[in-house]
Amino acid sequence: MSxxxxxxxxxxxxxxxxxxEVEKLAQKGIVPQLGIVRVGARPDDLAYERGAVKxxxxxxxxxxxxxxxxxxxxxxxxxxxxxxxxNPDIHGILLFRPLPKQLDEESVRNIIDPKKDIDCMSPVNxxxxxxxxxxxxxxxxxxxxxxxxxHFGIDxxxxxxxxxxxxxxxxxxxxxxxxxxxxxxxxCHTKTADLGATCRNAEILVAAAGKANMITAEFVSExxxxxxxxxxxxxxxxxxxxxxxxxxxxxxxxxxPVPGGVGTVTSSVLAKHVVRxxxxxxxxx
Length: 285
Ligand code: NAP
Fold this sequence. Notes:
Blueprint: E1 3-4, H1 7-26, E2 33-39, H2 43-58, E3 62-68, H3 74-85, E4 92-95, H4 105-111, H5 123-131, H6 140-151, E5 160-164, H7 171-180, E6 184-188, H8 195-200, E7 204-207, E8 225-228, E9 232-233, E10 239-240, H9 245-248, E11 254-255, H10 262-281
Parallel strand pairs: 1-11, 2-3, 2-4, 5-6, 5-7, 7-8, 8-11
Antiparallel strand pairs: 9-10
Helix pairs in contact: 1-10, 2-10, 6-7, 6-10
The protein binds NADP nicotinamide-adenine-dinucleotide phosphate.
């Protein structure tokens, strides 16, 4: 019988810890605050924003939404972004991406204070992830995967872990976080010669390819652990992961669902990062 690793369980445990941390800051007169920078009003961004604000406020993190016009010029955008970055009451910044095409994302990566860069846009934080230095901020989704594995007591030391996907948002940084925990990591991509065999060889398989239901039962070995990072719309119009859950779940020791898995934990990681940033910026550990 496979264990379904529900994101809600992980998020609930993280909430308890966050409430304690926020209370400790409150005793010092500090209210952690997230600055959300949104250019335009894309429905996806607005939906994520509503969820994130709700999650932050539930643990006592304040949110300030900075909405900028979609037609904003690079110069004005940089000025507005710098003002958020230098606001001492804002401890962490979330910028919705992709930006409209007239804006250059690279410049923001270099403007943002790495100490406020809670979703790892700055090359400083990304370099830290690759160096195994835990003093920076890893991207939220890979860290959410690590939270799920830790919550369900999955020891990574010496384990064969295969990650399908090598993007800078998920696959590569996640592989570095797994390596830091002493897993033996294999990274797969579209040019991997025998994807099936490489996946079957894994004790833990993480799918982050963005291809609906591509991981079928033939890709997993008996009693393996499967984490599905994919968020796709299936042929039936419903949200689904990269893993064919119905076919794969019976073979596994444990598996994350989509929806209700890794994605549910991402905004809790964001909240954790804001609290950590508030501690750093106030000279606390
Ligand atoms: P991406 O930038 O499109 O990268 C996809 C990666 O998967 C690439 O490295 C690609 O290989 C590889 N890939 C694609 N099809 C493959 C196949 N058939 N066989 C082997 N490798 C394949 O996507 P991403 O931004 O990393 O996101 C991946 C998935 O995670 C998406 O479904 C996305 O929606 C989801 N996501 C979820 C969250 C969350 O909170 N749960 C957050 C972010 C993203 P190449 O490099 O060779 O092209």
